[in-house]
Amino acid sequence: MQHDPYLEHVSVRFQEARLSARLPAAMIVDEGEPIAASLVNFSRHGFRLHVDGRYDAGETFRLEVSGWPRLVGRVIWNDRGRIGCVFDEPPSGKVFQTMCASATGLDRAAF
């Protein structure tokens, strides 16, 4: 049986606590125009967006959130404008702390 990295990410998703967020975000699909979205929650390995449109499982895109590095995400599920995604390459611990500070408004210098 072949190893499926998507299933690995899905199992991680259920083990990780997620940080709630209501942040404006953008999806860049195939280097096209930014698609407005709202980041609802995130963890070091994944996130959920509210976004108009239908995106298929496995579809990749670049996620942009102000103050965050550009990250590549992959759709795991889609349900009426909500999509669950995993990061193709999870951010480092230090970068993730910066993302958390940005999302909560905490002073980044505290980390």
TrEMBL record:
Annotated ranges, domain PilZ: 15-91
Family matches, as Gene3D superfamilies: predicted glycosyltransferase like domains
Pfam families in UniProt: PilZ
InterPro entries: PilZ_domain
Matching SUPFAM superfamilies: PilZ domain-like (SSF141371)
Protein name as it appears in the record: PilZ domain-containing protein
Species of the source: Sphingomonas oryzagri
